[in-house]
Write a structure and sequence with these properties.
The complex is a heterodimer. By secondary structure, chain A is an alpha/beta fold. Chain A contains 15 helices and eleven strands. Chain A is globular, with a radius of gyration of 22 Å. Chain B has three helices and two strands. Classes of the chains: A alpha/beta, B mainly alpha.
Chain lengths: 488, 96
């Protein structure tokens, strides 16, 4: 395997020196995809001609000595819930099986302006609902480290694309851990930005108050570069904001001597002992550099999962109401096996046939929790608990600069292992609170358990995105090199 | 413990514009009850005098200038509609 250690800056150096050409790199990835994708089911759509055409244009810019910026010529994979103009965008759902958006998401517009080359669209859990990529209408993606295991989810396709060297960088989306958990399972870096830091315009909505697009890469520096390109306030997303790049860490100028909180709730029952060992070692390594480690408590984190499983499905049931078989996407009227006499039947048959099991489950749960007689008991109570969870973090960040812990309680699990929905939901126990509080967090590979990667999670206060990268780079340096999977 | 009946599931399905076969209805009844029983712990959370979150980024009243911007042409918007006629989306009759 070649190029598996290539980073954005190395690629750009090689492009500039003429040692490597954008067309050659794209051809390499296209050949690898053709070879590996049938077994791993990572890409749903590969843009062969289009990516080569873009590479040729990029090549001309490098030849003229005028690349557009750090991403010019960089092949990228996009999670298939990110809208790409005239290119299939399915969210891995039957209901959008043939959907080609007439516009680009803001992040895609930014990538194109920066000269990045879109290689293709990657598999996900249907509408990003899942932690394993198993709920995809197009079948599960396999973990490159062990093909009998899941890559995590919902951004499992993007994570596996980076781990198996089928793209230089990728984008995912994170609603309850969907960037960080697959990053942990696939041994790559995954960054979930502060809520609002990246425009959600063109991201197929799952739970709008929680969804964020973010980078999935081999190195922290690559994630930082990618974040720099895709972030920023966007008039098309009224919740989007600018993050101050020059903000300083509160307690220390020297990031390696910052104050780090370790929440006792993140090391309780349910955490696999081998994962605990790796996370503890990571914390010790940072301590040896001069970081001040302090145990903290996030007492309301025990409610995070329940809180999330009210707020998220309520937003899901509202967001997915748009799939009605009339405006775009799958329609029962186009299926000769289904008879539809009136409008109501079009709705019922389109949605019942078009949505998968998990999407329906969450629509039902959300409809119930927001229906007359139950909205106070469930939704309004959950919004109050969300305040408690945010206050826990506010209090913690008045004492420490960052919070460290595991990303997931376990290493990648087996395909089919978690057939019970509640068991599956519990796999996001350490990532969910971050979305509820709107915080930035990163998953950085920390070590291996039984030849499977495990990630360390670094959580920062709102708007501390750039400082998180600094600390994550420090950790990456002391952690040392990692091994790459050998895909047979 | 949250009690969910098959009647509840039928009602929620109707509100959700979904329909289920018998076995599916039975499966969802059990699963929703299990999930809601787990979620019931929320009622123990100390939320007296706690305000609900409205916008997690702390933004309020985000507005923009009332200017006309370029938008997608009707033809483009309708491209994905399964049934259309004379620049409109065509739907089946609403009343019998």
């Amino acid at each position: 395997m070649a190029y598996e250690k290539l980073t954005i800056s190395q690629t750009q150096n090689d492009f500039q020196a003429g040692k490597l050409k954008p067309t050659a790199l794209v051809k390499f990835y296209l050949a690898e995809i053709q070879k590996i994708n049938p077994d791993l089911n990572i890409y749903l759509e590969v843009l062969k001609e289009e990516s080569l055409r873009q590479a040729e244009e990029s090549e001309k810019r490098y030849q003229a000595g005028k690349p557009k910026g750090p991403l010019d010529g960089m092949p990228i994979a996009l999670k298939d819930n990110i809208s790409t103009k005239n290119v299939l965008t399915t969210a891995s759902s039957k209901i959008l099986e043939n959907y080609r958006p007439p516009y680009d998401a803001t992040v895609v517009e930014k990538l194109r302006e920066a000269g990045a080359i879109i290689l293709g669209k990657t598999n996900l859990d249907e509408f990003a609902m899942g932690s394993s990529t198993e709920t995809s209408f197009f079948g599960p993606t396999k973990n490159p480290y062990d093909l009998t295991r899941v890559p995590g989810g919902s951004s499992g396709g993007s994570a596996a694309a980076i781990a198996s060297n089928l793209a230089l960088v990728a984008l995912g989306s994170d609603t309850g851990g969907s960037i960080r958990q697959p990053a942990s399972f696939c041994g790559i870096v995954g960054f979930k930005p502060t809520y609002g830091a990246v425009s959600r315009y063109g991201l197929l909505a799952m739970a709008s108050s929680l969804d964020q697009i973010g980078p999935m890469t081999k190195t922290v520096r690559d994630a930082e570069i990618l974040f720099g390109v895709i972030s920023g306030a966007d008039p098309k997303d009224s919740t989007s904001i600018n993050i101050n790049q020059n903000a300083k860490c509160k307690s220390q100028n020297d990031i390696s001597k910052c104050k780090i909180g370790v929440p006792k709730e993140y090391f309780g029952q349910g955490l696999e002992p081998a994962v605990r060992k790796i996370i503890k070692k990571a914390i010790d390594q940072l301590k040896s550099l001069g970081a001040k480690i302090q145990e903290i408590s996030l007492p309301n984190s025990k409610y995070a999962l329940s809180c999330y499983y009210i707020i998220m499905p309520v937003e899901v049931s509202s967001n997915l109401a748009r799939y009605d078989g009339l405006k775009y996407g799958y329609s029962a009227t186009q299926n000769s096996k289904l008879k539809t006499q009136n409008l109501l039947e079009v709705y019922l048959k389109t949605r019942s046939d078009g949505f998968g099991v998990e999407a329906k489950r969450r629509i039902m749960l959300g409809t119930y929790a927001s229906s007359a007689g139950y909205i106070d008991k469930y939704y309004n109570q959950a919004q109050k608990v969300r305040t408690l969870i945010k206050k826990d973090f506010d209090k913690a960040f008045s004492e420490v600069d960052f919070i460290l812990g595991p990303v997931s309680p376990e290493k990648a699990f087996k395909i089919g292992q978690k057939s019970d929905p509640l068991t599956m939901y519990l796999s996001d126990i350490y990532t969910i609170a971050v979305n509820l509080a709107g915080l930035p967090a990163i998953s950085v590979p920390a070590g291996m358990v039984d030849d499977l990667p495990v990630g360390l999670q670094i959580i920062g206060p709102q708007f501390s995105d750039w400082q998180i990268f600094k600390l994550a780079k420090v950790f990456e340096r002391i952690r040392g090199e990692l091994s790459y999977p050998e895909i047979s | 413990m949250a009690k969910i009946t098959s009647g509840d599931v039928d009602h929620i399905a109707e509100l959700s514009r979904l329909e289920f076969k018998r076995e599916e209805q039975k499966k969802y009844t059990g699963e929703l009850e299990k999930i809601l029983t787990y979620i019931d712990e929320l009622k123990e959370a100390p939320t007296d005098k706690v305000e609900p979150i409205d916008q997690i980024g702390g933004l309020s009243n985000v507005s923009r200038d009332d200017e006309i911007n370029e938008s997608l042409a009707t033809q483009k918007v309708l491209e994905n509609a399964p049934e259309k006629q004379a620049g409109f989306i065509k739907v089946k009759k609403i009343f019998d």
